[in-house]
Amino acid sequence: MTQVLFVKWWLGLTKAKERTVDLVLTDQNMPIMDGLTLIKNLRELGSYQKVPILMLTTESSDEMKAKGKAAGANGWLVKPFDPKRLIEVVQKVIGQ
């Protein structure tokens, strides 16, 4: 059974320290902690070193995508995106 855990941006890192999930979807532009910082912090946790992380954002520059890859993002989807494309990318990164 697939479980989905939706966490408001301000609880993301706290919840990640409490439990490991199979996939992380994040935005770049969030208050307090942006997506790149969240990804870097998640990758520092041993339990999240191999968990796929996808960035869903309005940021589309090659520079931002390179920063995302350097931070540890496995994929980058620019909003708005086709929901079918999101499913395809999710299936690819989780190995289905």
Describe this structure in words.
With 96 residues, the chain is α/β, with parallel strands linked by helices. It has a domain at 31-93: Response regulator (Rossmann fold, 3-Layer(aba) Sandwich). 40% of the residues lie in helices and 12% in strands. It has four helices and three strands, in the order αβαβαβα. The chain has helices spanning 12-18, 35-44, 62-71, 83-93; strands spanning 24-26, 53-57, 75-78. Helix 2 links the parallel strand 1 (24-26) and strand 2.
Q: Helix segment count?
A: 4
* Spatial strand arrangement across the major sheet: 1-2-3
Number of strands: 3
Tell me about the largest β-sheet.
3 strands, parallel
Based on the structure given, which CATH architecture of the domain at 31-93 is correct?
3-Layer(aba) Sandwich
* Topology order in helix (H) and strand (E) letters: HEHEHEH
Q: Which quaternary structure do these chains form?
A: single chain
Radius of gyration: 13 Å
The share of residues in extended strands comes to 5-15%
In CATH, what is the class of the domain at 31-93?
Alpha Beta
Provide key terms for this protein.
Rossmann fold; 12% strand; alpha/beta; 4 helices; 96 residues; three-stranded parallel beta sheet
